[in-house]
Amino acid sequence: MTTPNKTPPGTDPEQLEKTGTVREIGSQAVWSLSSCKPGFGVDQLRADNLETYWQSDGSQPHLGNIQFRRKTTVKTLYIYADYKSDESYTLSKISAKVGNNFHNLQEIRQLELVEPKTQTLLKIQN
User: Residue limits of the DOC domain (predicted)?
Assistant: First the structure.
């Protein structure tokens, strides 16, 4: 299991993207959610706005899936989570899995979140 890393000063993903240090590749993926309330789905989750969010609906667990059409190297995953705003809807676990299809996925990293209040960083590769 991996411990949460808060984004260190000077490593804002938007700034890193502007300098060419990182590249946003989420638009190359197919995003799906186990459930969502109307108006609180993938578009809101992916919006470049901290005021919008995904709100799940239905029984737990609530899952989000990011699947790339072809083999894609992902080194770091940046996620903003704010327990104070989201309370019981806040992420509690992030799991990174790899495989050739949905049926042979193997977990390579897991991150437990406890009342997060900032951008969280999950290092996928060492």
Answer: 1-126
Domains in the chain with CATH codes: 1-25+76-125 (2.60.120.260), 26-73 (no CATH)
Q: Residue 5: which pLDDT band, with cuts at 50, 70 and 90?
A: very low
Quick check: 120 and 4 in contact, CB under 8 A?
A: yes
Helix (H) or strand (E) holding 45: helix 42-46
Which pLDDT does position 84 carry in this prediction?
Answer: 76
- Whole-angstrom distance, CA of residue 111 vs CA of residue 60: 18
| Cβ neighbour number for residue 122 with a 10 Å cutoff | 19
